[in-house]
Amino acid sequence: MNNDIERVLYSEEDIRAVVTKLGKQLTNDYQGKKPLVISVLKGACLFTVDIIKRMDVYLDLDFINISSYHGGTESSGKIDLLSDLKEDVADRDVLIIEDIIDTGRSLEYLVNLFKKRDAHDVKVCSLLDKPEGRVVDVNVDYVGFHVPNEFVVGYGLDYEELYRNLPYVGVLKPTVYEK
Ligand SMILES: O=P(O)(O)OC[C@H]1O[C@H](OP(=O)(O)OP(=O)(O)O)[C@H](O)[C@@H]1O
Ligand code: HPA
Ligand SMILES: [Mg+2]
């Protein structure tokens, strides 16, 4: 699997350092607030377990599963809600945990959904931000790394459902796409 990677963008150590930094900011900003942390599956699964361990606040954790890439490298433009939250977001301080903001469509969908359900506040923490991919305008409150306009995998991010278990974030070799 590692042989499919052209280059590593962020190593395990880089990710650990940025998770610690973001965890400190979130600990500070959410003191006394008891946020509802919403992990966006599947991509955000690894980032979520690491970041919540660095947040020294009382929090609730919930999961939502949405999909628009269907394993490929291009957004279909349509967001499918595969499984919804268990918790009610009404009057809650919601913190969305994402792996990447690319076109911004997934985030726009989620922010609109949670606002419609009367969340008190909706903030976003994403490991990666790809500003050049943007199609819709969205606000990202906490960002780990800004990535170049390339399709990246690892640490939760997939290509055709594979590579999520890589401990780092990297760029795939073009030969993998051409197969
Ligand atoms: O800003 P966008 O262009 O909307 O892209 C970002 C979203 O796309 C990916 O999800 P995907 O649809 O691949 O589902 P997955 O997390 O299950 O892989 C990623 O995990 C983000 O949720
Ligand atoms: O670059 C990406 N990699 C994996 N999944 C993604 N979903 C949006 N952008 C990406
Ligand atoms: Mg995906």
From TrEMBL:
<dbReference type="GO" id="GO:0006166">
    <property type="term" value="P:purine ribonucleoside salvage"/>
</dbReference>
<keyword id="KW-0460">Magnesium</keyword>
<dbReference type="InterPro" id="IPR000836">
    <property type="entry name" value="PRTase_dom"/>
</dbReference>
<keyword id="KW-0479">Metal-binding</keyword>
<dbReference type="GO" id="GO:0004422">
    <property type="term" value="F:hypoxanthine phosphoribosyltransferase activity"/>
</dbReference>
<dbReference type="GO" id="GO:0006178">
    <property type="term" value="P:guanine salvage"/>
</dbReference>
<feature type="domain" description="Phosphoribosyltransferase">
    <location>
        <begin position="14"/>
        <end position="159"/>
    </location>
</feature>
<keyword id="KW-0963">Cytoplasm</keyword>
<comment type="pathway">
    <text>Purine metabolism; IMP biosynthesis via salvage pathway; IMP from hypoxanthine: step 1/1.</text>
</comment>
<keyword id="KW-0808">Transferase</keyword>
<keyword id="KW-0328">Glycosyltransferase</keyword>
<dbReference type="GO" id="GO:0032263">
    <property type="term" value="P:GMP salvage"/>
</dbReference>
<protein>
    <recommendedName>
        <fullName>Hypoxanthine phosphoribosyltransferase</fullName>
        <ecNumber>2.4.2.8</ecNumber>
    </recommendedName>
</protein>
<dbReference type="GO" id="GO:0032264">
    <property type="term" value="P:IMP salvage"/>
</dbReference>
<keyword id="KW-0660">Purine salvage</keyword>
<comment type="similarity">
    <text>Belongs to the purine/pyrimidine phosphoribosyltransferase family.</text>
</comment>
<dbReference type="GO" id="GO:0005829">
    <property type="term" value="C:cytosol"/>
</dbReference>
<comment type="function">
    <text>Purine salvage pathway enzyme that catalyzes the transfer of the ribosyl-5-phosphate group from 5-phospho-alpha-D-ribose 1-diphosphate (PRPP) to the N9 position of the 6-oxopurines hypoxanthine and guanine to form the corresponding ribonucleotides IMP (inosine 5'-monophosphate) and GMP (guanosine 5'-monophosphate), with the release of PPi.</text>
</comment>
<dbReference type="InterPro" id="IPR005904">
    <property type="entry name" value="Hxn_phspho_trans"/>
</dbReference>
<dbReference type="GO" id="GO:0000166">
    <property type="term" value="F:nucleotide binding"/>
</dbReference>
<dbReference type="GO" id="GO:0052657">
    <property type="term" value="F:guanine phosphoribosyltransferase activity"/>
</dbReference>
<dbReference type="InterPro" id="IPR050408">
    <property type="entry name" value="HGPRT"/>
</dbReference>
<dbReference type="InterPro" id="IPR029057">
    <property type="entry name" value="PRTase-like"/>
</dbReference>
<dbReference type="GO" id="GO:0000287">
    <property type="term" value="F:magnesium ion binding"/>
</dbReference>
<keyword id="KW-0547">Nucleotide-binding</keyword>
<comment type="pathway">
    <text>Purine metabolism; GMP biosynthesis via salvage pathway; GMP from guanine: step 1/1.</text>
</comment>
<dbReference type="Pfam" id="PF00156">
    <property type="entry name" value="Pribosyltran"/>
</dbReference>
<dbReference type="GO" id="GO:0046100">
    <property type="term" value="P:hypoxanthine metabolic process"/>
</dbReference>
